[in-house]
């Protein structure tokens, strides 16, 4: 399997960015089982780059070595996570290797309300999902799909 | 943003390498030297903490001048420096409605801070100015400042404001046109300047420093008596990096004086089950983005993107970013505000006017239905910034803010706080209060007395809150950091927690055998939500009742050693 790196022309972040990247890959007829985003700060203006592990299709972008870290926008088993799931199920049924609670430990029985939006971190080949306490005795991923946008997101 | 800067000149502050204005200039032992150093410090020349850390031989002759002397006649004035109106694209209220609410809730001063941007600069400014002047005339007992919520180029938002004077509007207009991140990042074709990539991208950082120097130059040239800037909701999106906060402070130390210790929007975390929005307290529900500082990383132990007991992570974390700035020995004050746009359970909704074309939403529309999805409180309803001032005048209240005589209070947790820090034995025996700077002979003792008065009546939730505990926090002053992105002060700890059982209490603590310069500060809690080590708990998204988790934070006192 090959990894490729792309720098999309559009500059948005979060769920909106992910959607554009993933649909661009799909439209190009490329299958990628792992898609990561990376903030690159080499120049004065940071950019979001994408690396994708290609399973089939002719991928755009340049070929690279497997990345060390990133924020994961697509991973095997992601589509299963649509609602509330136990930590044990998340680890067993998806590529996520570990679920880590922020400020509170989780157990295999801990329920995580995914809201259908899961963005684990990729660290040295492992996928780690950070979750935090949420309303109703469950946990939720630390990254939510639609964080509040001040002044309608214009700035 | 995240771009790393290392200012070379900050690296050389040791005794053997005198820099301009250093306390370690061996040739300069004149009594006037201290005054001269203060003068330089006021101009932002690299002096201060580093020298304090190593002050010793050769300095004994000079007696430092304390600031914010304890016992100086002053009164306390409650206010709010972050208020939106119909002249913000996401606001709705008229100026007069906001002033009436502030007055109803007992505020003495308030700042109108609509969002900067192309439409605001072009259309709103000329509409809000007469509204503010009218509100001043009809509410003589509330100081109504004109300000701006500035999009700091490369970073978050900030309150910028001036006292009313002949040039106030001209200065604000020029400042916004020249330096608002929204205008700088908007394409020329759309009425902006097209000079930076995004409002929060790091190519904006030099503009932020130039902006603050511009304001300072307006003060130095006498066009305004004072101008202040407070960074708003600093951790919300992680885009105020530590080096930017330090950069603003050092670029214009008389202007950039602090940040919101607690953001507004405190009703946003009320659960849906309790009839609330079910959002995040303070609207702090974000995660790292492209312009976030990489050091702000959620981990198993913390999430910098959340509030803690309603306060911003930078302020709430003992030994965190705020403490790391104070440990440099330089002022940086905290406040708490409403950031009111749309009020929880109000029936008013935004007017229908096209903001981009007119700079106003028009008059708000009464929907007749309580808006449970709104996340804010009216000015003075929950958050107060209490300021010690000589008089109830526009300039004096701003001087109190500038001097750090400031307490940030939620939900009327306390009605009064008298902090006195003084030397026992050789040193400053009268002592100083909040935001002040005092001194003691090396090896001497420093006495801290805190007199705290609990709420004398119910808050606006109809409950008389009860202060349960007081934390005395202190840490060594270690001088300017070499890494400008430093975000921790490992030497700062809670040195003593006092249990509060009476409505009026007095606590004393003595720092003995003081080895070097340090600072201290006080915070208090209703004790209803505490971690195992007595700190504030990370607020849970969609389940944070602001009234059952009350804190106050007071600004620090610095102690020099002679």
TrEMBL record, chain B:
A GO term, aspect molecular function:
5'-3' DNA exonuclease activity
Q: Which residues form the Polymerase/histidinol phosphatase N-terminal domain?
A: 79-154
What InterPro entries does the record tag this protein with?
A: PHP_dom, PHP_domain, Pol/His_phosphatase_N, Pol/histidinol_Pase-like, TAT_signal
- SMART domains hit by this protein: POLIIIAc
Regions of compositional bias (Basic and acidic residues) in chain numbering = 7-17
Query: Where does the source fall among the domains of life?
Result: Bacteria
The region called Disordered is annotated at 1-27
Which Pfam families does this UniProt record tie to the protein? PHP (PF02811)
What's this protein's name? PHP domain-containing protein
């Amino acid at each position: 399997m090959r990894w490729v790196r792309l720098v999309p022309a559009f500059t948005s972040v979060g769920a909106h960015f992910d959607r554009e990247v993933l649909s661009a890959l799909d439209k190009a007829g490329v299958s990628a089982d792992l898609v990561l985003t990376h903030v690159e700060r080499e120049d004065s203006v940071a950019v979001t780059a994408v690396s994708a592990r290609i399973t089939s299709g002719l991928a755009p972008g340049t070929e690279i070595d497997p990345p060390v870290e990133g924020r994961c926008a697509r991973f095997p088993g992601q589509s299963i996570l649509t609602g509330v799931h136990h930590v044990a199920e998340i680890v067993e049924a998806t590529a996520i290797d570990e679920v880590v609670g922020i400020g509170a430990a989780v157990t295999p029985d801990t329920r995580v309300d995914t809201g259908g939006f899961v963005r684990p971190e990729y660290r040295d080949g492992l996928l780690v999902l950070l979750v935090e306490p949420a309303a109703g005795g469950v946990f939720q991923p630390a990254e939510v799909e639609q964080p509040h946008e001040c002044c309608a997101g214009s700035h | 943003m995240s771009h790393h800067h290392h200012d070379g000149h900050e690296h050389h502050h040791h005794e053997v390498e005198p820099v301009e204005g250093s306390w370690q200039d061996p040739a300069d032992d004149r009594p006037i030297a201290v005054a001269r150093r203060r003068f330089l410090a006021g101009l932002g020349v690299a002096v201060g903490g580093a020298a304090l850390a190593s002050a010793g031989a050769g300095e004994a002759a000079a007696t430092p001048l304390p600031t914010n002397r304890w016992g100086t006649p002053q009164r306390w004035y409650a206010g709010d420096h972050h208020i939106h109106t119909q002249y913000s694209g996401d606001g709705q209220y008229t100026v007069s409605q906001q002033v009436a609410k502030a007055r109803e809730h007992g505020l003495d001063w308030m700042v109108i801070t609509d969002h900067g941007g192309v439409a605001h600069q072009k259309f709103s400014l000329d509409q809000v100015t007469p509204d503010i002047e009218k509100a001043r005339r009809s509410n003589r007992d509330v100081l109504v400042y004109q300000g701006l919520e500035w999009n700091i180029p490369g970073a978050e938002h900030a309150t910028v404001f001036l006292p009313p004077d002949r040039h106030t509007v001209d200065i604000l207009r020029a400042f916004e046109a020249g330096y608002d991140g929204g205008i700088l990042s908007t394409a020329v074709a759309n009425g902006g300047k097209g000079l930076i990539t995004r409002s929060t991208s790091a190519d904006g950082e030099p503009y932020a420093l130039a902006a603050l120097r511009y304001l300072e130059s307006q003060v130095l040239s006498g066009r305004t008596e004072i101008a202040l800037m407070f960074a708003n909701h600093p951790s919300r999106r992680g885009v105020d990096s530590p080096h930017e906060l330090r950069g603003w402070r050092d670029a214009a130390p008389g202007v950039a004086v602090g940040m919101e210790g607690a953001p507004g929007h405190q009703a946003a975390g009320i659960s849906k089950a309790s009839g609330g929005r079910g959002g995040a307290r303070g609207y702090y529900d974000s995660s790292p983005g492209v312009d976030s500082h990489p050091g702000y990383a959620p981990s198993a132990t913390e999430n910098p993107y959340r509030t803690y007991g309603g306060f911003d992570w930078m302020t709430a974390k003992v030994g965190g970013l705020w403490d790391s700035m104070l440990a440099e020995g330089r002022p940086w004050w905290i406040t708490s505000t409403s950031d009111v746009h749309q009020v929880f359970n109000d029936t008013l909704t935004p007017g229908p006017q096209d903001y981009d074309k007119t700079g106003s939403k028009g008059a708000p529309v009464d929907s007749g239905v309580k808006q449970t999805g709104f996340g804010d409180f009216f000015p003075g309803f929950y958050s107060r910034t209490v300021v010690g001032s000589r008089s109830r005048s526009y300039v004096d209240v701003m001087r109190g803010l500038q001097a750090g005589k400031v307490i940030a209070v939620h939900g009327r947790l306390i009605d009064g706080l008298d902090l006195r820090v003084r030397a026992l034995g050789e040193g400053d025996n009268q002592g100083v209060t909040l935001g002040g700077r005092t001194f003691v002979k090396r090896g001497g003792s420093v006495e801290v007395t805190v007199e705290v008065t609990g709420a004398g009546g119910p808050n606006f939730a109809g409950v008389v809150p009860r202060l349960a505990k007081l934390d005395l926090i202190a840490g060594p002053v270690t001088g300017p950091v070499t890494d400008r992105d430093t975000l921790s002060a490992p030497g700062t700890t809670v040195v003593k927690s006092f249990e509060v059982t009476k409505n009026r209490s007095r606590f004393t603590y003595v720092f003995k055998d003081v080895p070097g310069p340090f600072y201290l500060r006080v915070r208090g809690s209703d004790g209803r939500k505490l971690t195992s080590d007595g700190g504030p708990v990370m607020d849970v998204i969609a389940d944070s009742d602001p009234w059952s988790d009350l804190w106050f934070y007071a600004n620090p006192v610095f102690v020099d050693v002679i």
